[in-house]
Write a structure and sequence with these properties.
cytoplasm, binds phosphoenolpyruvate, 436 residues, UDP-n-acetylglucosamine1-carboxyvinyl-transferase, Chain, alpha/beta, 4-stranded mixed β-sheet, transferase, binds shikimate-3-phosphate, 3-phosphoshikimate 1-carboxyvinyltransferase, 12 helices, 22% strand, 23 strands
Length: 436
Amino acid sequence: MVDVSLWKAPVAASPVHASVTLPGSKSITNRALILAALASGPSTITGALRSRDTDLMIDALRALGARIDGDAGATTLRVAPGDLGSATVDCGLAGTVMRFLPPLAALSNGAVAFDGDEQARTRPLNTILDALRGLGVDIDGDGLPFTVNGHGQVSGGVVTIDASGSSQFVSGLLLSAARFDLGVTVRHEGRSVPSMPHIDMTVEMLREAGVRVQTPGDGGDADTWRVFPGPVDAVDWVIEPDLSNATPFLAAAAVTGGSVGVPLWPARTTQPGDAIRGILTDMGADVSLADSTLTVRGPRSLRGIDVDLHDIGELTPTVAALAALADGPSTLRGIAHLRGHETDRLAALRTEINNLGGAVTETDDGLRIEPRPLHGGAWHSYADHRMATAGAILGLVVPGVEIEDIGTTAKTLPGFEALWETMLKPSSAEQIGAPS
Ligand SMILES: O=C(O)C1=C[C@@H](OP(=O)(O)O)[C@@H](O)[C@H](O)C1
Ligand SMILES: C=C(OP(=O)(O)O)C(=O)O
């Protein structure tokens, strides 16, 4: 149920100067959990994110038969694979749970019943269920709720899908495919696949677990990914900080003319959040990476931007908030698929920024944002963690922004309000820590 209480977004009385340490990446944590549950021995996961999306994944894998040691909130997890059996899975509103788990559930010996939040029922899902049917899996239903009737084995083989709605359809099939009799060859046909770095993340993590993968980039056909059958090795995973969750904090420096540093920024990563460096630079901020800390120094005023976010759609709410505060117009393109995210993010951003006096129009594949003086008002978050954090960015410089259901940030960043409020304290340049 949506919490309709309002959180008064704090205004930055002066430029923000802070160091903010972020917890682990949602996307890497949930992939590591899946691979650990399919592995041939016990794995450890260090620096795991504990949030609604990752706890739903942990609960589901435990219900399916994996043993996961680590109390509520523990960021070091020991995962021992077990025999997979009947289970009930709550997907919440998590794309990674609803799309990564059905292929794994197909390997179980028993019926695995999936459901989730009411709002999750409208997220695109049938592509992966149809793909699994094409690979020999018995499934009742075409969307939430649905049941995967596992028979302990999946034939696998070649399947053609339209993954233009979500990269998670491809990632989900690839993650479990080494355990299918024939592995899998996924061919995409349709408009281009979004969020390609997330598929690269999947491929990289599979290879780290000793799985043989062929991609379009290494001799395979265009838009085709192949996972060969074989064991999944146990790995001691170390999770990078969540760079998408870092973006609102970096934006705080950009919109207040301050400076924010994020330690433990990886030198090389498949996380889309890394692209915030180029975006903030193009908007006029000074961005530097030294001694593993990414530091953003805000300009006197931000420039508008014309940017294709097709590969990095997750960053759209942050970029839209930045653009609404820039001194010239912006165009965000390549993100039609955001209409199937936690909420229709294009409609939500247009509506909420315009409610504060903005001038945002929706295009076929994105947003056009004209700068306007903004005023305070209620900001609806639509159970979308990134809508809530986008409102917080605006609230730093627009007095009177009140955010509905700030607790929805717990989807990927529990404790967001405390981290945000601490960032605004004068002493916070010293260190703001993630929970350990
Ligand atoms: O694989 C992943 O971990 C994700 C892939 C992307 O999904 P889409 O391809 O549906 O945009 C991204 O937006 C989501 O937050 C996480
Ligand atoms: C789209 C997102 O999440 P999900 O994994 O639920 O698709 C997101 O975190 O921006």
